[in-house]
Amino acid sequence: MRITIQDVAREAGVSVATVDRVLNRRPGVRPATVQRVEAAADKLAYQPDRLAARLARARDYRFCFILPKGTNTFMQNLQAEVEAAAQRLSVERVRISVHQVDVFDAQALADELESLGDSYDGVAVVALDHPLVREALNGLVEAGVKVVTLVSDAPGSKRAHYVGIDNTAAGRTAAMLLGRFVGPRSPEKGPGKVGLIAGSLALRDHVERQFGFEQIMAREFPHLEVLPVREGRDDYEKVEAVTRALLAETPDMVGIYNVGAGNRGIVRALEAAGRQRDIVFIAHDLTPFTRKQLVRGTIDAVINQDPGHEARSAARVLLSACEGFDFVADQERIRIDVFLRDNIP
Amino acid sequence: MRITIQDVAREAGVSVATVDRVLNRRPGVRPATVQRVEAAADKLAYQPDRLAARLARARDYRFCFILPKGTNTFMQNLQAEVEAAAQRLSVERVRISVHQVDVFDAQALADELESLGDSYDGVAVVALDHPLVREALNGLVEAGVKVVTLVSDAPGSKRAHYVGIDNTAAGRTAAMLLGRFVGPRSPEKGPGKVGLIAGSLALRDHVERQFGFEQIMAREFPHLEVLPVREGRDDYEKVEAVTRALLAETPDMVGIYNVGAGNRGIVRALEAAGRQRDIVFIAHDLTPFTRKQLVRGTIDAVINQDPGHEARSAARVLLSACEGFDFVADQERIRIDVFLRDNIP
DNA sequence: CTGAAAGCGCTTACAG
DNA sequence: CTGAAAGCGCTTACAG
Fold first, then answer.
1. What pLDDT is stored for residue B187 in this prediction?
2. A10-34 pLDDT, tens digit each
3. D14 C1' – B58 CA distance, angstroms?
4. Do A92 and B50 touch (CB under 8 A)?
5. Superfamily of domain B5-48
């Protein structure tokens, strides 16, 4: 019933060791033998048993997760989820270690990546879209290390896979929600103003969200005017200052979209101005804080990416790459979650 | 480094066979021995290796999925996803078969469940909330079969787990979207009317969605009036007739929520009346059809549950139950997806 | 009630 | 370049 490596060996007239060599592309087999084994495997429709393979391996798989250090709640959650996955996989022959680097420092990230050499079978990294980083990633890939980017991609690089959401689409979704929640506006009032706050315009995901947002606002909601983006550095005190200024300057503000972190600052500024009810506020990332404000009604919708899903997905994708299996594309697609008050998990 | 059953055996002064018996609660071990083995396992913080266990088992795990027969696109997708999961798991010592029964016939479903006896280790079933079904489910559970309900729950029963969304919360979410998308209404116009269509009020999920929807509409959007629910039997021709009637009777209709299937009928009726632009339409379940209407703008939002996730989750939960492991709660939580035009996968 | 031994389907040195 | 044998951490008859 089950076709094993034994059956293939018999069919090909070789030993199981040779079949193993061929199937796992290990060197030192005569081309003619490779042919015969491959033909036999094809003929029998052999499917390797990855459980048995993992069990038999002498070495564990070693993965490294490189995450930005000391930052916002989302990244802390992500790290916690990576550690939880590490804990679970430790019984399944996968060892995961977590390294931390400064997010904004491309050089430091590149150095860290290069220092890894080939001491890991797989690396998952919250990347930066920067030539130095791309180079470092490509270096790892060429050294035979499996590489995935996590949450933030480095598009030009040779990484095998990006585990994260489409941030442009996330920005478009935010715009759609904001525009529709604000609703139509009687023409005599003139265009309503919409505030846009980002952490840093050096972060690719922030820029992409902004781009998607402005695209849809312009196309679908011409009666709303998006104000020039302000940077809040993902720091809530800075974000609060920026928002206070925005509110003071803009009596006819009808909506705010915060592309990055620091939502606490916006809530404070809105409450100080007593405008938390009449301004539509779209934020990113479900945290205890945003959840609470969603329930209270100050935040109207949260766009989310599930850090638990991302952590598990990165590990699964790396494992599949190491074992030479395809991953289940559907299962590894990270959703752009939309949370309103009633569908938060 | 890795603690194995060997280590536990040595520590307890017994053989590995005895450790296996104790750890897997197999009968025929003296209580005193059980104590000793358990103490040893605790002391060493032994964690069994589920890969090795699966490999060593003589028998495969046998799971049965019971799905409603010949119904809507969602159920067809669900079946396809179950089959895809079955295909993948077949290499991992899990055999999944799919049975089909008539959804609306509690007796038939109960009979089917009872006929299963103990020929399966696990059963996943799209349930009906009916005493006969509950009894049959409890019978299976008592016979030692692991049981999960899928998509539609049977709350009073002893099933181990429900794989699906909270339908009341889904209805509340639909209401929130509809109410906010419609927006405020000048008082002189009087309350706007909202049409509510369900497949059948005998289906628990439909009733729950309706309940959640009406709850939020009443509480949050008093300027909107929800019309009495109409049944469309999840059949698009019937749904079209119902919608046409609704539209004819209700010139001031501002929104429609379809709790069940048959969205095609609503789109046709809206287009026939030329009102697809000014009526907010919230539907369930992403299909090629709803996706297209979302892009065209006739459907304003789709509330979704991911059939791929549900199929895989049911299989994983059953497998964990059979192997005596906890599942990862977070991973098995089925999301209430909200899809707008820009975040569809 | 308990244990010794074989075996699940692979991978890994070690020989040749 | 290829094969025989041991071993991964369990479970399973079979003996006793």
1. 66
2. 999 999 999 999 999 998 889 999 9
3. 15
4. yes
5. lambda repressor-like DNA-binding domains (1.10.260.40)
